UniProtKB/TrEMBL annotation:
This is Nose resistant to fluoxetine protein 6. Keywords: Signal. It comes from Nephila pilipes (Giant wood spider). Residues 79-231 form the Nose resistant-to-fluoxetine protein N-terminal domain. It holds the Pfam family NRF. The keyword NAD does not apply. Residues 1-20 form the signal peptide.
């Protein structure tokens, strides 16, 4: 006889727990918007959680890189406009502003398959050139500038009878450094090529000096071959008046 009341009590407890449970996502939406969330609100991902994660991630990344960036900039003589724009870029990355995230996104990263010979990553050319940054007055501050960069490790004289086709066997458990030592001779013929997106206030010479500082610990040589900025095409119409004098007689 005691089993029935027990089962009934358990069912009541489950019913209460099910209906009294408050969805954290629903709570967040209500607190943020001041209204009861719709089915569409509950169905879509909570992008504010992603935003919070991204802000925390970029904050930590910027905090770690800023001291190194300060030391690099102190040792080179880049233009004041470039310096100001770079710091604005870094601060805006920390604040995950759209233009800064697009500029970072348009810059090439380490390519996939680099140990199989992939040494080129061009980035996003069109996305970079489409970026325009305005100041507080709504006037243009600078634009996205796409720079082509070449980098190559500093190597000694090329060994005689070097065959890039021959590769010694590297054990799966060996250090990655040994794998690099086995493939680095390919750079007698190859060059790392990649594209970066930077503020248009920085000249190719500015980026050359900054890039040289970045790769200096790696004993790399670097060359910023060219930088491109999208500019408005202005067409001026020239009025040409032709006066034809006809003499009669």
């Amino acid at each position: 006889m005691w089993k029935r009341p027990l089962i009934f009590a358990v069912l009541i407890f489950v019913f209460i727990c099910t209906h009294c449970h408050v969805d954290p996502k629903k709570q967040n939406i209500e607190a943020r918007t001041g209204r009861t969330p719709t089915d569409h609100d509950l169905a879509r991902p909570d992008l504010h959680l992603y935003e919070s994660f991204l802000k925390n991630f970029t904050n930590q990344a910027v905090k770690r890189t800023l001291p190194t960036l300060y030391r690099m900039i102190e040792s080179i003589n880049i233009s004041a406009d470039c310096l100001s724009s770079l710091f604005k870029y870094v601060v805006s990355l920390k604040e995950i502003k759209v233009w800064a995230m697009k500029m970072f996104d348009a810059t090439a990263k380490i390519p996939s398959g680099i140990f199989s010979g992939t040494v080129t990553e061009v980035g996003a050319f069109d996305q970079c050139l489409a970026i325009m940054v305005k100041n507080k007055k709504g006037l243009e501050d600078f634009r996205g500038q796409y720079c082509s960069v070449e980098a190559i490790p500093t190597l000694g004289p090329r060994p005689k009878n070097l065959s890039l086709a021959k590769r010694t066997h590297i054990s799966f458990n060996e250090s990655i450094i040994k794998e690099i030592q086995n493939t680095i001779f390919a750079f007698y013929q190859l060059t790392h090529r990649f594209g970066i997106c930077v503020p248009s206030t920085c000249s190719a010479n500015d980026m050359q000096m900054l890039g040289a500082q970045v790769v200096k610990p790696l004993n790399y040589g670097i060359r910023v071959s060219r930088c491109l900025v999208s500019e408005e095409i202005r067409v001026e119409y020239l009025k040409i008046s032709n006066t034809i004098s006809t003499g009669l007689g």
